[in-house]
Write a structure and sequence with these properties.
With 339 residues, the protein is an alpha/beta fold. It contains twelve helices and twelve strands. Helix 4 packs parallel to helix 5 and helix 9 packs antiparallel against helix 10. The longest helix has 22 residues. Bound molecules: nicotinamide-adenine-dinucleotide and zinc ion.
Length: 339
């Protein structure tokens, strides 16, 4: 095991720890109490052997393997997890561990948040997107009737275990798509991080990954510590997302991956031509798409339906200089100008 970094996340009453390293899973019990009932929640796309060292350290370890894919991030799947906890005689002292990408983290986190009004939760993210973004900040949710993340809770994991070795099995396209959230983190709050992406030689990505992910996590951590419930500042994390979500939905959440759509969304919202070119060069470096074909009216409608669009205005996140984001209240009709 190699521990690269340990971070504390401080949210007043709630504190959690983030551990970054390699081969951590076989020593997980040195960071948390596994001497209780533990339910490991994972999906069919996550290599089965990842759960083995975790289960081996639990006093009473159980596993539930859910079908993979966003279409299963539903109340029905959430209920399956809760039923399993009930059947196992789970008490408030027991533990849920998510082992998977953002879909599993969101769903297992919501099961942990809701069973008996809350049991301990540990998140072990296995995709770049979940290591960089979704496992940090305590948002848990499922989708309902095609509306993403509409039912959920804020529930902070006691421990988030970022093990870079788990990414070895991730398909390259998924890997690159998740990196967009780190590029975004640089653009909104850490110019040096964005510049590191600009100068990076792609062949070095595996070696550089720990420092890139660590910097991106710190951006998110700082923002979430300042505004856990998204009353203000936390909105800057949505840079590229309002338009990106519209395009992602237009492709019915299947042809474009989330990060790919967000990358295009960042380009669309960036008006400064020089900066747009810089972002484009970074995206191209990781074989990420920089354009998409879509019907502008249809995407406009989808952006309007997004939960972030309140009444006739929308809070757009703009970046003019890397490292500095602004929240701009914009009349909804103006969205058309960017599409
Ligand atoms: N809570 C938050 O703050 C937050 C933020 C951003 C995104 N999200 C959510 O995250 C989800 C997307 O997460 P994602 O991109 O990780 O997708 P995902 O969890 O669906 O994983 C993508 C695919 O990769 C597979 N996979 C996972 N780990 C693997 C590994 N190590 N090797 C090989 N295959 C692996 C999965 O089985 C799945 O098929 C969405 O539901 C989104 O709403 C949440
Ligand atoms: Zn995102």
């Amino acid at each position: 095991m190699t521990v690269i970094e340990r971070l504390k996340i401080d949210l007043g009453n709630d504190t959690g720890e983030i551990i970054l390293g390699r081969d951590i899973l076989k020593d997980l019990s040195s960071f948390c109490n596994l001497n209780r009932k533990v339910l490991v929640v994972t999906d069919s796309g996550v290599p089965a052997e990842y759960a083995e060292p975790v289960l081996a350290q639990c006093a009473e370890g159980h596993i539930i393997v859910l079908p993979s894919g966003e279409q299963h991030k539903t109340l029905a799947t959430w209920q399956t997890v809760l039923e399993k906890m009930l059947e196992l005689g789970f008490s408030r002292k027991d533990l849920v561990i998510a082992l998977g990408g953002g879909m599993i983290g969101d769903l297992a986190g919501f099961a942990a948040a809701s069973f008996m009004r809350g049991v301990d939760f540990i998140n072990i993210p296995t995709t770049t997107l979940s290591q960089i973004d979704s496992s940090i900040g305590g948002k848990t949710a499922v989708d309902l009737n095609g509306v993403k993340n509409i039912v959920g809770a804020f529930w902070q994991p006691k421990l988030t275990c970022i093990d870079f070795e788990l990414l070895a099995s991730l398909p390259r396209r998924e890997f690159n798509s998740g990196l967009v959230e780190a590029i975004k983190a640089g653009l909104i709050a850490d110019a040096a991080l964005f510049e590191r992406f600009e100068t990076l030689n792609v062949a070095d990505i595996e070696i550089k990954l720990p420092e890139l992910i660590s910097a991106a996590i710190k951006v998110k951590q700082k923002v979430v510590e300042a505004d856990e419930k998204e009353a203000g500042l936390r909105q800057i994390l949505n840079f590229g997302h309002s338009l990106g979500h519209g395009i992602e939905s237009y492709y019915q959440l299947n042809e474009l991956l989330h990060g790919e759509a967000v990358g295009i969304g960042m380009l669309l919202i960036t008006e400064d031509e020089k900066l747009r070119k810089r972002i484009e060069n970074v995206l191209l470096k990781f074989d990420l798409p920089v354009t998409a074909v879509y019907d502008k009216d249809a995407v406009f409608e989808l952006v309007c339906h997004d939960k972030k669009a309140a009444a006739n205005t929308i809070n757009l996140i703009k970046v003019e200089v890397p490292g500095k984001a602004e929240i701009v209240k914009t009349p909804i009709e103006e969205i058309r100008r960017y599409l």
